[in-house]
Description:
The complex is a heterodimer.
Chain A: H1 15-19, H2 22-42, H3 45-61, H4 72-95, H5 102-106, E1 116-119, H6 124-134, H7 137-146, H8 153-160, H9 164-184
Chain B: E1 11-14, E2 21-25, H1 28-38, H2 44-57
Antiparallel strand pairs in B: 1-2
Amino acid sequence: MNEPVIDGGAADGTAAGWASTVLGGLYAEHNRAIYYLALRLLGDPECAEDATHDVFLKAFKKLDQFRGQASMRTWLYRIAINHCQNLSKSWHARNVQSNAEEVVWEKAVARTESPLRILEAKELGQRIQMALDSLPGEYRLLLLLVADEELSYEEIGALVGQSTGAVRGKLHRARKAFTSLFEGAPEKVKS
Amino acid sequence: MKHQTKLTKVQEQENTAGRETTLKFASPEEALRYDAAQTTVPPRIAQRLKESLSRAAGPARPWWRNLLPK
């Protein structure tokens, strides 16, 4: 029996019915993590909405291929990362010529000992997006993954194709670079 | 939590005006976690997903296909 499991519809068609299905339960458990990753990788709520839909649809169609060697969260992240990277590549190829070099961030001088402060919660998302957008993609992804407390360094390493030691080293530099950018961002962000 | 971080709880401080809130985070991860918790996932996604899954399910597998070799 290798037919993909795609019957996610609830018999009664209600939201509660959907949530009680296997697919509904998986979506309920992981949708925030996947949407947030897509939002901050792509930087656009509409793109993130489309990406989240596409990632879960892809995952549900391939659910029979999930071997349980990794956690469901890790498996979904892998699909999401590939999907977002493909979208970013095509978008950046059309619109952006990146000049972000890792060496720049390795030399970044940051006030890592001081806490990150910000006025008003509503500005937080904009400030975070600005800082993330200025980071090399590898650092951006590492920070987003390590922020998920369900992932171990080993799982993060597997997702980004790096050893645990390399992940730790790069995370150190990523934190410094992010802090420097976050603190350097204007206090009030125009919408 | 499986990996070690030096996170502390988010601190919120009311300023003198009493209207703005200063958020203070001990690390980037803490700021990202707080931001993620504040982010609302559009409810439309679940609805779109249900519709897409219904379309993808298509008609039931014909009984005679069970007789064919895989």
